[in-house]
């Protein structure tokens, strides 16, 4: 498989199937959806450390998070299922996951510079960084700007710079970049409410960061949930909303103690 078409498995066959192998290396993939649709669970399930023969990259991960502490207990519980028989008793998988908390969007340019330096340093080890996760880009960027023309312009310029930086990291260093975006409700007064929306929990929603941000991503995945009236359980779906390489498609999945699995 060429460098431009390398994939990292999600360890969920149905999701890997519509993604033609998993999360793409060399581009920015966005996960968008409302709270509790499984975005963080999917981020934690990307099996970067597996060898290529099992769908991984034998690589390391940088995980940038915004809200609260990194979910290390959940990750630790998932590792035996994600890595399965590839676990080496002499190798702690958590040693290959570097986390960093960011609370302000103004920190992000410096953080991306740090990411580049860390990736370069990893090339001196046996575990190159092959996956960068930001969970979530919307949480970092949506609440720090005034709702004025100047505030919106500042946000637009910063997002443009961040988006360009992430695209450059993905393509120049051949890593998969996975960013989480929230959604906001679509109201009738919205100029594009009749066509530009998705449905989740019976509501019309759209990605929180707007159309300008969309230029930065190669693939957008939308996670949604609804209630099965028969047994009151969640029905979870993941849809490919846009992609430079993939056909638009959709599949079901579940979240269990083993992580994201086939429904």
UniProtKB/TrEMBL annotation:
PROSITE patterns: RECA_2. GO terms for biological process: double-strand break repair via synthesis-dependent strand annealing; resolution of mitotic recombination intermediates; t-circle formation; telomere maintenance via recombination. Residues 4-183 form the RecA family profile domain. One of its GO terms (cellular component) is Rad51C-XRCC3 complex. This is DNA repair protein XRCC3 homolog. InterPro entries: P-loop_NTPase (IPR027417), Rad51_C (IPR013632), RecA_ATP-bd (IPR020588). It comes from Spinacia oleracea (Spinach). The lineage of its organism: Eukaryota, Viridiplantae, Streptophyta, Embryophyta, Tracheophyta. GO terms for molecular function: ATP binding; ATP-dependent DNA damage sensor activity; four-way junction DNA binding.
């Amino acid at each position: 498989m060429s460098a431009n078409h390398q994939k990292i498995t999600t360890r969920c066959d149905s999701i890997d199937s519509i993604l033609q192998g998993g999360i793409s290396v060399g581009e920015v993939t966005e996960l968008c959806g409302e709270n509790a649709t499984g975005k963080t669970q999917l981020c934690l399930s990307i099996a970067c450390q597996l060898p290529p023969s099992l769908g991984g990259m034998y690589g390391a991960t940088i995980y940038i998070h915004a809200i609260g502490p990194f979910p290390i207990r959940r990750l630790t519980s998932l590792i035996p299922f994600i890595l399965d028989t590839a676990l080496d008793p002499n190798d702690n998988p958590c040693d290959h996951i570097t986390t960093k908390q960011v609370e302000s969007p103004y920190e992000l340019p410096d953080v991306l510079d740090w990411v580049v330096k860390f990736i370069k340093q990893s090339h001196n080890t046996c575990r190159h960084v092959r996956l960068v996760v930001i969970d979530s880009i919307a949480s970092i960027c949506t609440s720090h700007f005034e709702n004025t023309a100047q505030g919106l312009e500042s946000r637009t310029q910063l997002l443009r710079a961040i988006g360009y930086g992430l695209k450059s990291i993905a393509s120049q260093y051949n890593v998969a970049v996975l960013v989480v975006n929230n959604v906001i409700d679509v109201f009738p007064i919205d100029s594009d409410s009749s066509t530009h929306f998705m449905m989740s929990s019976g509501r019309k929603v759209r990605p929180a960061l707007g159309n300008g941000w969309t230029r930065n991503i190669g693939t957008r995945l939308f996670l949604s949930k609804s209630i099965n009236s028969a047994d009151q359980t969640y029905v979870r779906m993941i849809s490919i909303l846009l992609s430079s390489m993939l056909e638009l498609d959709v599949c079901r999945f579940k979240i269990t103690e083993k992580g994201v699995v086939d429904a």
